[in-house]
Task: inverse folding
């Protein structure tokens, strides 16, 4: 199972994510590259047995009315979201290319700053659901950017091992220093399909002036 929630449309050595693994999961949450108007998701697989099992799990362990072979969930996508996604799907590649264009502006304009920008390895493509940088004094810089009307974000401010829900694992601050450093320094810059080049240039200009 591969989590492709942020990567729909991306590719690895010429193959789209979701076509490489035995089974892959996608999120269609409204903010995703392909989003609906509520909670929805999907799986991709060429394995008929896995496909059958997933169909059963999404509907209380059943593919035939009143016959339940597994303990499942009520995870059926409603028709209105399916209709919206079927219309939006034809625009996905164009929207992803717009994100790539904005990311290219950031990569070019921010290359002289002491920050880490996303790296796209050879033979891979990135669809930039998030354009995330690593930067010192993150909270200060974000607050100053927000004063200038720039909606930056943090993905994600708390590493998993420090969440209360995982306290049963008995981890403490310092156990995973790399994850903690990344959480302290990560900053997501605005990146979305309808963003204009001038807006991306403005983000870079403000970020440079703050630093």
Result:
């Amino acid at each position: 199972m591969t989590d492709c929630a942020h990567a729909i449309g991306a590719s690895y050595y010429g193959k789209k994510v979701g076509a490489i693994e035995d089974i892959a999961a996608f999120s269609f949450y409204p903010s995703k590259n392909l989003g609906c108007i509520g909670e929805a998701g999907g799986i991709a697989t060429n394995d008929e047995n896995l496909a059958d099992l997933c169909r059963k799990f999404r509907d209380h362990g059943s593919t035939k009315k009143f016959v339940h072979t597994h303990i499942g969930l009520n995870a059926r996508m409603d028709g209105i979201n399916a209709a919206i996604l079927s219309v939006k799907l034809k625009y996905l590649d164009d929207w992803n290319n717009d994100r790539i264009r904005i990311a290219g502006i950031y990569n070019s304009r921010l290359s002289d700053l002491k920050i880490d920008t996303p790296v796209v390895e050879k033979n891979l493509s990135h669809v930039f659901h998030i354009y995330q940088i690593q930067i010192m004094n993150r909270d200060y810089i974000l607050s100053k950017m927000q004063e200038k009307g720039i909606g930056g974000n943090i993905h994600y401010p708390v590493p998993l091992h420090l969440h209360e829900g995982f306290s049963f694992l008995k981890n403490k601050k310092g156990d995973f220093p790399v994850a903690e450093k990344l959480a302290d320094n990560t900053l997501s810059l605005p990146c979305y399909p309808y963003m204009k080049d001038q807006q991306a240039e403005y983000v870079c200009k403000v970020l440079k002036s703050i630093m």
Notes: Residues 2-90 form a domain with the Aspartate Aminotransferase; domain 2 fold (CATH 3.40.640.10). The helical segments are 48-58, 79-88, 92-109, 138-147, 177-185, 197-210.
